[in-house]
Amino acid sequence: MNTLGQILREHRESKGLLLRQVAAAMEMDTALLSKFERDERKPNKEQVLTFAKYYNVNADELLLAWLSDKIAGEVQNEDLAKEALKAAEKKVELFKRKKK
Amino acid sequence: MNTLGQILREHRESKGLLLRQVAAAMEMDTALLSKFERDERKPNKEQVLTFAKYYNVNADELLLAWLSDKIAGEVQNEDLAKEALKAAEKKVELFKRKKK
DNA sequence: ATTTGACTTGTCAATAATTGTCCAAAGTTA
DNA sequence: TAACTTTGGACAATTATTGACAAGTCAAAT
User: Which bases of chain D are contacted by protein, using any atom under 7 A from a CB?
Assistant: First the structure.
């Protein structure tokens, strides 16, 4: 269960690439990439997809990490975190049905 | 499994109060309150607590609805919604341990 | 048919939150 | 030490959210 940042860093290091190289290829600032890898900034969905292409990995792997990071970050300091997540699941489910 | 808006409306109606009465008591615009009850705008945490006091209900009931609404809204259009929520649970759990 | 009262809708400015950039500092390696 | 990689922090830019106001709908009453 890793954060998106951890995953991105693993992929980069496994290929022996430098931040500056990846950053150049993805047309972003090196410092920003560094922050992404340390989960200090969150990329947007589009950027996540670009990472997936660049590292040649399944987009869902990255998107799942990205989305769950966002959710976890949002509830992290809440006492009701766990219950709220359960309730959210039900709401998502309910809403999906309504849409049909 | 109701939204915060639905809950707020139920409480107001059960007391036979008008939007403008509640809005006045809570020092907010009637239109804004209307939006809260229809889940068009999300109140902040403080406002939720104020609602709890005003309607004399358990704050957790409202906070849970509020938080789960926020989460559900965030993942609603994502294919990976369900998986992401599960993953977020684990992440919250992991992170809690790390803090200790 | 007009008025009244309750609620809703749309728009806009203000505010807040997040993101991206730049540069300096810190850490690494040779 | 020198060259290079990575990180931190401050600030600008962008994006999202909020609240206020005016105008609108609808139903019931007159």
Answer: 5-9, 17-23
* Whole-number pLDDT of residue A96: 79
Contact state of A71 with B90 under an 8 Å Cβ cutoff: no
Range of the structural domain that residue A27 is part of? 4-99
Least confident of A29-33, A90-94, B4-8: A90-94
Residues A28-54 as b or e (16 or more Cβ within 10 Å = b): eeeebbbebbeeeebbeeebbebbbeb
A35 touches strand C (CB under 7 A): yes
Q: Whole-model pTM?
A: 0.92
- 3-class DSSP state for residue A86? helix
Q: In CATH, what number is assigned to the domain containing residue A26?
A: 1.10.260.40
Type of residue at A49: L
Q: Write out the two tokens for A47.
A: 């950027």
The total domain count for chain B is: 1
What is the interface size between A and B, counted as CB pairs within 8 Å?
Answer: 99
DSSP class of residue B44? P
A interface test, pick of B61, B85, B90, B96 with most A CB neighbours within 10 Å? B85
